[in-house]
């Protein structure tokens, strides 16, 4: 069985290719509402997430570990593997690095949302977080809009400075900042492990887009109820959001919004060409879904098969691609 590490995945599939794979699946009629639900299993070190999905071409399951104490040990917070199977026979095809796959597909989902929701002239980004997802989302946002400025807000000053340096290498005017900087943002991206709101929702301009990807727990959120009340609300799937998205479930429980206030889904934005209202902020809340892992893992496997077809002597990639920065 083929094993694909982070470098291998990067060599096989660019972020833009991952975005196109997800968009193609939605345009072809994939229904995220039918995606199997995630299983959360508590373990002494944290939790295990088990995420299965299947299509006619591929099946797969991700077993991801979430170990909150790992960063203090110099280890990644997200671990695990993704087992990709042949759809018709269920024979194993490949094992992929789960952390790298999760980072790639999460940023690709956000890129689809940003492309559909953010104003065309979006240029000023405020980015909460400075881990692997923040790097991936910075790159995806740059691929989607012509950003000129980036402000990084993080609990770790050292990590924030490293991300600022990287943003400058990408050609942006970049600096560290504070939550109040959302007042001047066109785009706000939240990639954190925060349990409470990161900023005051009243400060977000009416033209801005907010993407929140950091949590999938009903009692945890990165955005406050005021932002949710003010915004048009977009999700990957209503079923998943109403199970796991604390950013929406907490305001729902408090009577700030109702389920009917969820404006639409990623499938409506991508497959149906839905467009958001222009007179209020747009909030896209992502919890991460198994269909996304399957589509991106399948695209990577297809890319490897295509490369081998073109060069029959080609071996499994051996780390020739650029790994996602883990600072």
Automatic annotation (TrEMBL):
<dbReference type="Pfam" id="PF02423">
    <property type="entry name" value="OCD_Mu_crystall"/>
</dbReference>
<dbReference type="InterPro" id="IPR003462">
    <property type="entry name" value="ODC_Mu_crystall"/>
</dbReference>
<dbReference type="InterPro" id="IPR036291">
    <property type="entry name" value="NAD(P)-bd_dom_sf"/>
</dbReference>
<protein>
    <submittedName>
        <fullName>Delta(1)-pyrroline-2-carboxylate reductase</fullName>
        <ecNumber>1.5.1.49</ecNumber>
    </submittedName>
</protein>
<keyword id="KW-0560">Oxidoreductase</keyword>
<dbReference type="GO" id="GO:0005737">
    <property type="term" value="C:cytoplasm"/>
</dbReference>
<dbReference type="GO" id="GO:0016491">
    <property type="term" value="F:oxidoreductase activity"/>
</dbReference>
<feature type="region of interest" description="Disordered">
    <location>
        <begin position="307"/>
        <end position="327"/>
    </location>
</feature>
<dbReference type="InterPro" id="IPR023401">
    <property type="entry name" value="ODC_N"/>
</dbReference>
């Amino acid at each position: 069985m083929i094993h694909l590490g982070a470098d291998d995945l990067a060599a096989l599939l660019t972020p833009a290719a991952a975005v196109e794979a997800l968009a193609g699946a939605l345009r072809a009629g994939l229904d995220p509402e039918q995606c199997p639900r995630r299983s959360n299993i508590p373990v002494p070190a944290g939790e295990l997430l088990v995420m299965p999905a299947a299509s006619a071409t591929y099946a797969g399951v991700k077993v991801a570990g979430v170990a909150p104490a790992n960063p203090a040990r110099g280890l990644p917070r997200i671990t695990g593997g993704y087992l990709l199977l042949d759809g018709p026979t269920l024979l194993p095809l490949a094992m992929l690095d789960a952390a790298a796959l999760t980072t790639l597909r999460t940023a690709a989902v956000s890129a689809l949302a940003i492309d559909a929701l953010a104003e065309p002239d979006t240029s000023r980004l405020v980015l909460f977080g400075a881990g692997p997802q923040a790097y991936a989302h910075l790159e995806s946002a740059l691929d989607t809009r012509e950003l000129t400025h980036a402000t990084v807000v993080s609990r770790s000053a050292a990590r924030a400075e490293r991300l600022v340096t990287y943003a400058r290498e990408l050609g942006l005017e970049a600096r560290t900042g504070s939550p109040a900087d959302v007042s001047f943002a066109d785009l706000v991206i939240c990639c954190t492990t925060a349990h409470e709101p990161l900023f005051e929702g009243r400060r977000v301009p009416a033209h801005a887009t907010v993407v929140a990807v950091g949590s999938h727990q009903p009692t945890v959120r990165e955005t406050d109820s005021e932002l949710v009340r003010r915004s048009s609300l977009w999700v990957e799937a209503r079923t998943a959001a109403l199970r796991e998205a604390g950013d929406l479930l907490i305001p729902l429980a408090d009577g700030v919004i109702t389920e009917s206030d969820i404006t639409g889904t990623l499938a409506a934005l991508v497959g149906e060409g839905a467009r958001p209202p222009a007179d209020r902020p747009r909030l896209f809340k992502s919890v991460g879904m198994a269909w996304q892992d399957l589509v991106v893992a399948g695209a990577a496997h297809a890319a490897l098969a295509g490369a081998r077809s073109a060069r029959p002597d080609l071996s499994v990639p051996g780390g020739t691609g650029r790994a996602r920065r883990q600072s």
